[in-house]
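Quick one:
INPUT:
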Protein backbone atom coordinates (compact mmCIF):
# COMPACT_ATOMS: atom_id res chain seq x y z
CA UNK A 1 0.00 0.00 0.00
CA UNK A 2 1.27 3.49 -0.85
CA UNK A 3 0.45 6.39 1.43
CA UNK A 4 0.50 10.03 0.37
CA UNK A 5 0.27 12.66 3.08
CA UNK A 6 -0.75 16.19 2.23
CA UNK A 7 -2.11 19.38 3.75
CA UNK A 8 0.91 20.69 5.58
CA UNK A 9 2.00 24.29 5.45
CA UNK A 10 3.04 27.39 7.34
CA UNK A 11 0.48 28.73 9.79
CA UNK A 12 0.38 30.95 12.85
CA UNK A 13 -0.16 29.80 16.39
CA UNK A 14 -3.85 29.24 17.02
CA UNK A 15 -4.63 28.37 13.43
CA UNK A 16 -5.96 25.07 12.11
CA UNK A 17 -4.81 22.63 9.46
CA UNK A 18 -6.27 19.45 8.10
CA UNK A 19 -3.88 16.76 6.99
CA UNK A 20 -4.95 14.02 4.63
CA UNK A 21 -3.45 10.63 3.92
CA UNK A 22 -4.54 9.05 0.66
CA UNK A 23 -3.88 5.35 0.24
CA UNK A 24 -3.44 3.52 -3.03
CA UNK A 25 -2.56 0.01 -4.05
CA UNK A 26 -5.02 -1.64 -1.71
CA UNK A 27 -7.95 -0.72 0.44
CA UNK A 28 -7.15 0.39 3.97
CA UNK A 29 -10.62 -0.28 5.28
CA UNK A 30 -9.38 -3.21 7.37
CA UNK A 31 -6.21 -1.53 8.61
CA UNK A 32 -5.50 0.45 11.71
CA UNK A 33 -4.02 3.80 10.77
CA UNK A 34 -1.84 6.28 12.58
CA UNK A 35 -0.22 9.67 12.41
CA UNK A 36 3.27 10.32 13.71
CA UNK A 37 5.47 13.39 13.61
CA UNK A 38 9.14 14.23 13.75
CA UNK A 39 10.01 17.67 15.13
CA UNK A 40 13.26 19.26 13.95
CA UNK A 41 16.22 17.57 15.58
CA UNK A 42 14.06 15.09 17.47
CA UNK A 43 12.89 11.53 17.09
CA UNK A 44 9.64 10.54 15.52
CA UNK A 45 6.72 10.43 17.96
CA UNK A 46 3.19 9.11 18.03
CA UNK A 47 0.40 11.61 17.43
CA UNK A 48 -2.88 9.76 16.86
CA UNK A 49 -4.33 6.47 15.72
CA UNK A 50 -7.65 5.07 14.62
CA UNK A 51 -8.81 1.49 14.45
CA UNK A 52 -9.92 -0.04 11.18
CA UNK A 53 -13.59 0.42 12.06
CA UNK A 54 -13.12 3.93 13.37
CA UNK A 55 -14.53 2.81 16.69
CA UNK A 56 -11.33 3.44 18.64
CA UNK A 57 -9.03 6.43 18.59
CA UNK A 58 -5.97 7.34 20.60
CA UNK A 59 -3.98 10.52 20.98
CA UNK A 60 -0.72 11.68 22.42
CA UNK A 61 -1.28 13.74 25.55
CA UNK A 62 0.29 16.74 23.84
CA UNK A 63 -2.45 16.88 21.18
CA UNK A 64 -5.46 15.52 23.04
CA UNK A 65 -8.38 17.89 22.77
CA UNK A 66 -6.84 19.78 19.84
CA UNK A 67 -6.35 17.11 17.15
CA UNK A 68 -8.94 14.73 15.73
CA UNK A 69 -8.22 11.69 13.60
CA UNK A 70 -10.87 10.36 11.27
CA UNK A 71 -11.15 8.06 8.32
CA UNK A 72 -13.25 7.72 5.19
CA UNK A 73 -12.92 4.13 4.12
CA UNK A 74 -15.00 4.73 1.01
CA UNK A 75 -12.36 7.21 -0.15
CA UNK A 76 -9.42 5.21 1.22
CA UNK A 77 -8.36 8.27 3.20
CA UNK A 78 -7.42 9.21 6.74
CA UNK A 79 -7.47 12.76 8.07
CA UNK A 80 -5.92 14.62 10.96
CA UNK A 81 -7.74 17.80 11.93
CA UNK A 82 -5.37 20.01 13.90
CA UNK A 83 -6.81 22.95 15.81
CA UNK A 84 -5.24 25.49 18.14
CA UNK A 85 -1.83 24.80 16.68
CA UNK A 86 1.23 25.65 18.74
CA UNK A 87 4.83 26.27 17.68
CA UNK A 88 5.75 22.97 19.33
CA UNK A 89 3.52 21.20 16.80
CA UNK A 90 6.07 22.08 14.12
CA UNK A 91 7.20 18.81 12.55
CA UNK A 92 7.07 16.57 9.55
CA UNK A 93 3.87 14.56 9.86
CA UNK A 94 3.69 10.99 8.62
CA UNK A 95 0.76 8.67 8.17
CA UNK A 96 1.18 4.97 8.64
CA UNK A 97 -0.74 1.76 8.10
CA UNK A 98 -0.74 -1.34 10.26
CA UNK A 99 -1.57 -4.22 7.95
CA UNK A 100 -0.33 -7.12 10.00
CA UNK A 101 -1.27 -6.73 13.66
CA UNK A 102 -4.15 -8.97 14.73
CA UNK A 103 -5.39 -6.34 17.17
CA UNK A 104 -5.44 -2.57 17.59
CA UNK A 105 -2.06 -1.39 18.81
CA UNK A 106 -2.19 2.38 18.34
CA UNK A 107 1.41 3.29 19.07
CA UNK A 108 3.39 0.60 17.28
CA UNK A 109 3.26 -2.17 14.70
CA UNK A 110 3.00 -0.03 11.59
CA UNK A 111 4.20 -1.56 8.34
CA UNK A 112 3.79 1.16 5.74
CA UNK A 113 4.67 4.84 5.96
CA UNK A 114 3.93 7.85 3.81
CA UNK A 115 6.53 10.38 2.77
CA UNK A 116 5.56 13.07 5.27
CA UNK A 117 4.17 16.58 5.06
CA UNK A 118 5.75 19.55 6.80
CA UNK A 119 3.76 21.59 9.29
CA UNK A 120 5.34 24.81 10.51
CA UNK A 121 3.64 26.85 13.22
CA UNK A 122 4.98 30.35 13.82
CA UNK A 123 4.51 32.17 17.11
Amino acid sequence: VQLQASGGGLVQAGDSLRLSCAASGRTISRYNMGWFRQPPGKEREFVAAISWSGGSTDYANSVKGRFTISRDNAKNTVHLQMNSLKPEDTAVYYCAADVSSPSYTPRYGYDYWGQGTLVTVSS
